[in-house]
Amino acid sequence: MLLIFSIFASSQVSDFQNINLQKADSIADFYHGESLTNLPLLSFKLTNDLTTPVEKFRSLHTWVCKNIENDYGFYLENKRHREFFQKDSIKLNDWNKSFQKRVFTKLLEDRQTICTGYAYLVMELANQAGIKCKIIDGYARTPSSNVKTLGIPNHSWNAVQLNEKWYLCDPTWSSGNIYPFGEVSKFVHQYNDGYFLCDPSFFIKNHFPLDTAWTLTGQFSVADFLNGPIVYNSAFRYGLYPTSPKSMQLKLTKNDSITFSFHTDEQIDANKIYFRLISGSHKITAVPEIITQDNGILILQHSFNKSGYSDLHIMIEDQVLITYTASVNRK
């Protein structure tokens, strides 16, 4: 099993850096709004003029992300019922079966769904194109889910086999974001390429599968998943992945300095990164010192000159990428 994991760990989009995916994206855009009533035909249209498996999968994945809406109200309804029935396996199973039918009906009729529908549609279209693809069920980590302790399984994504290797992607979180508009929350399409064939060592930051073989890396535990910093979708959009500190909870003494290390996919302008420390209604913005930025590694340093407890958000352009907590003692 360890040998399998060591092979899987290198599976990421950079394996295909010599293949131009623009044609695949263009085809997906050309068929925007195409009907879901005939999935074999849709899969054919999206892949017929493409040569390599990765191009074909890219076209299918991009089309799903840009044509299907995430129904947040539907997600909340499912979440409430699953939490209510979690101690009654019979009622929970009955709910899952009845809700699953509604998920697929809503997907086909309204082009709206939740993670299960996204993952199903990607899998079905890929399989129609002769590409092996699976639905992976597990835990997604957000500020309100799976922090310190595991809740109930709350997310689904995909694994796809390309050139005899398995890769990971999340079409739901690639498709856009949920934003508050007054008293309601609405979905806004904002394609996020960071989850497409993502490096497993980064994907695991906020995805943990029920079957741990699908971590595609053997060096990450449930404890690592629960206790690490919270990594938001925006971190994947910018290509900024924390490597240390590994624990979300920072315990410090006043005037201590701490270094934060990151892997960067893109050449991020480190000067745009800032820290926002929030303690109750009190907010402080701080600019970290850049120690190193070279060869995909970024190291920042910050000194904690005040005691107390705060949430430490690592930000770019008013977007939170990563969150730690800092408990600073006087001495």
From TrEMBL:
Domain of life according to the entry: Bacteria
Domain Transglutaminase-like positions: 107-173
Xref: SMART domains: TGc
GO cellular component, one term: cytoplasm
Pfam families linked: Transglut_core (PF01841)
UniProt-recorded name of the protein: Transglutaminase-like superfamily protein
Provenance organism: Owenweeksia hongkongensis (strain DSM 17368 / CIP 108786 / JCM 12287 / NRRL B-23963 / UST20020801)
